[in-house]
Amino acid sequence: MAAELERTEQVRAKIQIKNPLLRNALSEFFGTFLLLFIGIGIVMQFILSNEKLNTWININLGWGLAIAFTVYTCSKTSGGHFNPAVSIAFLTLGKLPFKDFLVYCVVQTIGAALGSAAAFGLYYDQFVKFAGAYRTILGPKATAGCFCSYPALHVSNTTAFFDQFAGTALLVLFVCVVIDKRNGIPGAAHPLLFGLVVMMIGTAYGMNLGYPINPARDLGPRLFSFFIYGSGVFSYHSYYFWIPVIAPLFGAIFGAWSYTFFVGAHIPDQRETTYVLVDEANQPLKLATDA
């Protein structure tokens, strides 16, 4: 075991990336790939089994766990955004440089596309069993919903926009709550809490669109599915596709700053109290602080 660990450290010393942006970009790509590989697999298992192997609560639970474990994976590198909406919120809060934001958006979308492609490859036989040679967006054997969101025809694009705005605002608001150091939430608990936030949003506001609340999560798989289903993936429902790409960006900024204005800016700083420890002769030993 010791020798194996030693080899690991040897490899680490040789391949470790020193450039912070490159290191974080690789992390965001890999983390988003993993997130979509798992998450899309959950949706595929739901649809391709005629909703017998998964239920709606399974989808919420599965995505929550996928978020938690993938963020844990990358928590010590990029922090695990995996979502351009989260990244743009961090940009406006001054936590992420503009150049990094642009790079994150690109690698997140590529990672999402490749993650969905890998899930499709793993479930290809199930696609054939479920729908034969047909790949459709609508109908009883429609499978396009395995990849990205397609609202029912009665859901207007206006509703869809505000659905994505509100869902992403909730997501980023609670991300800001969790990471705010004044709230004193231990860093090791952050990824798990992010996963629980996603579960909460899914159980409350998943009915309209399935809560993509992530431009890369929706656009990446949609780009891949274009090669399977054709241009309909973009023209569906009066070109709905732009809504889960744009609306979350505005929602994320609103969520982040609403927390700041309503709560975050008003949390009092903890006062540091200094104590003098003394011995039995009442002689000072050392100073201790209690924040």
Automatic annotation (TrEMBL):
It comes from the Eukaryota. Aquaglyceroporin that may modulate the water content and osmolytes during anhydrobiosis. Its main location: membrane. One of its GO terms (cellular component) is membrane. One of its GO terms (biological process) is glycerol transmembrane transport. The chain crosses the membrane at residues 21-47, 53-72, 101-124, 160-179, 191-213, 239-262. CDD domains: MIP (cd00333). Keywords: Membrane, Transmembrane, Transmembrane helix, Transport. It is a multi-pass membrane protein. GO terms for molecular function: channel activity; water channel activity. The keyword Membrane applies. The keyword Transmembrane helix applies. Belongs to the MIP/aquaporin (TC 1.A.8) family. It is found in: Membrane. This is Aquaporin-9. Pfam families: MIP. InterPro entries: Aquaporin-like, MIP, MIP/Aquaporin, MIP_CS.
